[in-house]
Design goal:
about 90 residues, DNA-binding, DUF2063_N_sf, DNA-binding domain-containing protein, single chain, DNA binding, about 0% strand, DUF2063
Length: about 90
């Protein structure tokens, strides 16, 4: 798969890659968001409640878009999520 596929799925681009449909790419993007959301919530159950639905969505979308995870396993996401939060916190406090 091309970088344009991954860029779209992670929300880094709105350009639909050649050979794919907009509806199909939206489905892929949603599935990646849903998988990340569920895995993070399973490991940090109170976070979603504390943030509320809108802030939670923004947090997970930012994580998916900006994270550097390379593992294909959702089980590896909690460590990457913590690293993302630390990077974001460092940028805010810099």
């Amino acid at each position: 798969m091309s970088n344009s596929f991954y860029d779209y799925v992670r929300g880094r681009s709105e350009a639909v890659p050649a050979g794919y449909t907009l509806s199909g790419m939206r489905a892929y993007r949603y599935l990646v968001y849903l998988g990340a959301s569920q895995m993070v919530e399973a490991n940090f159950p109170m976070l979603r409640t504390q943030l509320g639905e809108q802030e939670w969505r923004l947090l997970i979308e930012g994580f998916v878009r900006q994270s550097v995870w390379t593992s294909p396993y959702y089980g590896d996401l909690p460590h990457d999520f913590m690293a993302y939060l630390l990077r974001e916190s460092a940028e805010i406090h810099a």
